[in-house]
Hints:
Blueprint lengths: L1 E6 L8 E7 L6 E11 L1 H8 L15 E8 L11 E4 L9 H5 L9 H5 L10 E3 L2 E3 L11 E5 L3 E4 L5 H4 L5 H13 L7 E4 L5 H10 L5 E5 L4 H7 L4 E4 L7 H8 L6 E4 L4 H9 L7 E4 L13 H5 L3 E4 L7 H13 L9 E6 L3 H10 L4 E5 L1
Parallel strand pairs: 10-11, 10-13, 11-12, 13-14, 14-15, 16-17
Antiparallel strand pairs: 1-2, 2-6, 3-4, 3-8, 3-17, 4-5, 5-9, 6-7
One zinc ion binds next to helix 2.
Pfam family, one: ADH_N
Family: Belongs to the zinc-containing alcohol dehydrogenase family. Class-III subfamily.
Cofactor: Zn(2+)
Amino acid sequence: MDVRAAVATKAGAPLTIETVQLEGPRAGEVLVEIKASGVCHTDLFTLSGDDPEGLFPAILGHEGAGVVVEVGAGVTTLKPGDHVIPLYTPECRTCSYCLSRKTNLCQAIRETQGRGVMPDGTSRFKMGGKEVLHYMGTSTFANYTVVPEIALAKIREDAPFEKVCYIGCGVTTGIGAVINTAKVEPGDNVIVFGLGGIGLNVIQGARMAGADMIVGVDINPAREALARKFGLTHFVNSNEVEGDLVQYLVGLTKGGADHTFECIGNVKLMRQALECAHKGWGKSTIIGVAGAGQEIATRPFQLVTGRVWQGSAFGGARGRTDVPKIVDWYMDGKINIDDLITHVMPIDKINDAFQLMKDGTSIRSVVTF
Ligand SMILES: NC(=O)C1=CN([C@@H]2O[C@H](COP(=O)(O)OP(=O)(O)OC[C@H]3O[C@@H](n4cnc5c(N)ncnc54)[C@H](O)[C@@H]3O)[C@@H](O)[C@H]2O)C=CC1
Ligand SMILES: N[C@@H](CCC(=O)N[C@@H](CSC=O)C(=O)NCC(=O)O)C(=O)O
Ligand SMILES: [Zn+2]
Ligand SMILES: [Zn+2]
């Protein structure tokens, strides 16, 4: 079938809207009509050429929501008409990672996903007779996509696609990092570096967890007002801090934070986030994704003296199990998504969504089909 997709032809180039041929679902796969997709900083990161796994030409997008159109042979848990959110972290429930109960990083299809192909090693997308690659196993910047059954969360049918698509990455990543990975406790002091589409959800999660001080660090002063609505208690514009930012934050939190989160993807800030965690017990969680060749560093003494450095992918969430529950939280008014979706536009305007992100004007843009 012909589908409309925003194609990333090469690193650094704008996406182009194209008619692409999509083959139907093979065994274990599902054809999904994508109704809406958020644009995450990770899409921009891969498009920029910084992603060591970035491959072109490809159809990016990993924050979608839509409806099942057709299922391939052997698919038992989904049927046409079901509403779904594609998962870049699948949940097969049978691999050793899933069965360990120690991680959400299901590895059932990770190798082929990283090569931009379906689990059988081929792509379903073609343009002008040539293969176009999948991205993160989801490729939601197309009005139809094919996704493995294990990478689809079935969600309730009354949830609006334009809002809950954001649960496909940003909401779950931010709130999940607080609840599942860091396990923030009532009364904890928290510092969040980066108040964008992820960091504001970390703030929202910290408030849900009952944190006391919730400090946000950003260079964009426009982020303060919205962050306060989500639970921020102290805003720090790092461009305005005189002297050492780490010392300033340690002073503000009277000895360091119980938990810090890096939500930018900057290795220097990852170090600062670790070093302003409390001596003896402070935990620093890296969420931001850094480019090829970037490495983190600190004095080992920072860890010897009790700080813990860890990371979080997709908020530690097991997608098929947890995503439907997060959709319920939204529908029950327990979490705020609406105020974070600052721009909605047709897929034809997707390059505007990237520009708004680069300019620091948007929190989340959602493209519709
Ligand atoms: N680990 C995971 O599972 C996931 C990781 N990510 C990553 O999280 C990071 C954040 O993504 P988004 O929130 O969508 O990006 P965003 O662009 O919406 O937000 C980034 C924020 O960082 C701020 N910032 C930039 N440079 C700064 C600096 N030097 N000091 C202080 N603040 C600064 C910006 O002003 C902005 O508010 C990205 O690296 C993204 O790739 C995103 C989703 C999932
Ligand atoms: N491909 C990159 C790393 C990209 C990355 O870290 N992705 C995150 C999700 S970011 C979502 O917006 C993730 O979950 N990673 C786990 C994984 O298995 O990919 C690189 O090679 O550095
Ligand atoms: Zn993302
Ligand atoms: Zn698995």
